[in-house]
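Sample 1 of the test manifest.
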Amino acid sequence: MEVHKRCHRKPDGRELILYGLKPLEGPPLAEPQEALAPAPHLRYHPLRREWVVYAAHRQERTFLPPKEHCPLCPSREGGFPTEIPFPTFQVAVFENRFPSFVPSPPPPPEGLPVPAERALGRCEVVVYTPSHTGSLATLTEEERLLLAWVWRERYQALYALEGVRFVMPFENRGEAVGVTLHHPHGQVYAYPFVPPLLEREAQAFRERPVLQELFPHLEPYRVDGEGGFLAFVPPFARYPFEVWVAPLERHPGLWTFSEEEMAAFARLLGRVVARYDALFGEPFPYVMVFHAAPLGEERTFHFHVEFYPPKRAKDKLKFLAGTELGASTFVVDALPEDTARRLREVL
Amino acid sequence: MEVHKRCHRKPDGRELILYGLKPLEGPPLAEPQEALAPAPHLRYHPLRREWVVYAAHRQERTFLPPKEHCPLCPSREGGFPTEIPFPTFQVAVFENRFPSFVPSPPPPPEGLPVPAERALGRCEVVVYTPSHTGSLATLTEEERLLLAWVWRERYQALYALEGVRFVMPFENRGEAVGVTLHHPHGQVYAYPFVPPLLEREAQAFRERPVLQELFPHLEPYRVDGEGGFLAFVPPFARYPFEVWVAPLERHPGLWTFSEEEMAAFARLLGRVVARYDALFGEPFPYVMVFHAAPLGEERTFHFHVEFYPPKRAKDKLKFLAGTELGASTFVVDALPEDTARRLREVL
């Protein structure tokens, strides 16, 4: 697939990259001048042994603006200046206005009683489509494939940055998971460390090909499949409607997929979301995360996507409370084999 | 403190224990006959390397009943039969009707593609007071002290059970954390394993006295204190209004507190909740968990209480989404030193 890419520097210094199947012509519209100086920093949690990010500037972030002030829509001449100063685009990626990690972070505050570090990295917003409504399920096949190529390109670009050790595209969808903008979009975080959870997964994959050992036994857990990819409810799901999407052959990330694999992956991802939306006849909230190999784990890590939906029924949420937050032990009231059947039969 | 204890076996086989400063006299009221057969089981998550509990019977659990059908109130002769078939009590503890762990679990399903185990253990509900309203902050000093002795006694009773390796009292408060019953109460889970998070904390304490090294530097993070106990916002807080309560001297759990320490601990816990409630002038939701030494860690673990509040402002929730759930990395938009000052100055 030939993807055209156009880079633009916003007046506040942030990068905006437009991706399309055709080159994007024409000059940008006028953009407001504004100084941004995000200053996140990291502090070490000595009992959980993980980094916590402090990003105080995020308190001001845009919260469910009216449709006509959506910052992720294309701009119109003389209209509300959005994040994308062009009258049209296909997929847009820009540096988050309220980042948790930045390429040139200031030093952390001095004199803290725990280790502190600069929040080096990068946080990006990925706008899936110029259309204000829709989802991974309603994109055209071509749009979804372009998006998959954008994820791939962002992996390559962000892992190439000095100091980045883990890159994670993700999507928060629905107000139930705290989404503040409804325009179809996701994000990519480039972390300066390997988060403990990923370190744990990487260690498991170093010891055994966990997913490949599991695949032959997943028939009762199968939700959908397509050209070498499987969508399934893990037999050890922590959320009632948790779904994973993975290639049957091990890949460290989608940067090693063939053209055919890219297309199959994009189609299957779209169908999983279509199944979710069919389940209760309404947009289904979820957190979707991509787990690709952290830096140095390319030889054993098995790329997969995890969907965490907060719903346990149409009108009931699965809350994380005492045992989940305080003991990292999830209690689930639906069996994976049952939710897999529901998701399999819904389409 | 002399605590009177009366054990009662419910017709469905569950144990109910009443605690009081005076003995509770009089026969129980009539109780409905009902067969319960909770059959939770454990499955192993091979990538996160933790146990997940499946408790399918929990789907039916009581959800925000009207006040007159509160199952945690005392029963009245001829009235709605609550969980406590007595017209009065001080503190009541009973086995959860919808348990995640049970003392005699059935074997797990056969033929699962991941390791499975019996969900051995015990889950209890701790009813703080016969009054339907109130909180840790509004209990009388005597009631709160009795409650602290009950926690202590439950620790001792549950750690004595065969196969139990970690015991955790906790409280989920407020609909924002999914509470289904408003009557002031908490829970205790007795786990048949050491959850990975606690294993991580225990490892940290085996290496260094993390909290005792921190205490001399906590002045900017101090919220309150009382007789050898400190309430503080950890300098590495993961929630904007996170507060920890800990004894300055190391104790593995509250079972080693002196009489004076029990009293100071109970008072301070009540004052932390009073500060929370004063913050926005309304009941403040939180998850509160007790971290005491898992089995075998008594020599180095430092008991402490962690409060995780889901609010970042009066009308704004802190949602856990992509980076928190998918990478175990928390992003916080308030600095601990600022929230500590707010909580310090609010009373």
